[in-house]
Specification:
By secondary structure, the chain is mainly α. The protein has helices at 3-31, 50-78, 82-86, 89-105, 109-134.
Length: 138
């Protein structure tokens, strides 16, 4: 397995971990009769703490970039160009984890400006760089 495919597996693992945290919380709340099972229906006012809401937001943010990351990694793999992505794929996943963790622990403007946004820029920059490199434009 290439480094890029292992990084993709790591990204999927990160998303699954966030899912499990959300599922465990919601399951506990329902099973302990603190919330009804439909308490998280879209459009409803959530009664969860800010930290729980931020975990859900981190999950949503992570899901937004899954198709792009997986698409680029698979494109590199099927075109036998994994060398293009292998070196920095773990950095991409690390940036994703940093962005998610910073999202969960704080919404302070300095955290957003100094940690979360730069981590996001790393991800977007790598996706753009890889896309150009895989298509032979750079």
């Amino acid at each position: 397995m290439t480094t890029s495919l292992m990084a993709m597996a790591g990204y999927i693992g990160w998303v699954l971990l966030l899912y499990f945290v959300v599922i465990a919380y919601r399951g506990f709340m329902v099973m302990s009769a603190q919330r009804k099972a439909d308490a998280w229906t879209r459009g409803r006012e959530l009664q969860d703490s800010q930290s729980v809401k931020r975990i859900g937001d981190a999950l949503s943010n992570s899901l937004e970039t899954v198709p792009l990351f997986v698409g680029v990694i698979l494109l590199a793999h099927v075109s036998d160009q994994s060398a293009v992505t292998d070196g920095l794929a773990p950095i991409y996943v690390g940036a994703r984890v940093v962005q998610s963790v910073s999202h969960i622990i704080s919404i302070h403007h300095l955290m957003i400006f100094l940690v979360r946004f730069p981590a996001f820029l790393v991800q977007v920059g790598l996706l753009a760089w890889w896309s150009l490199a895989l298509t032979g434009l750079i």
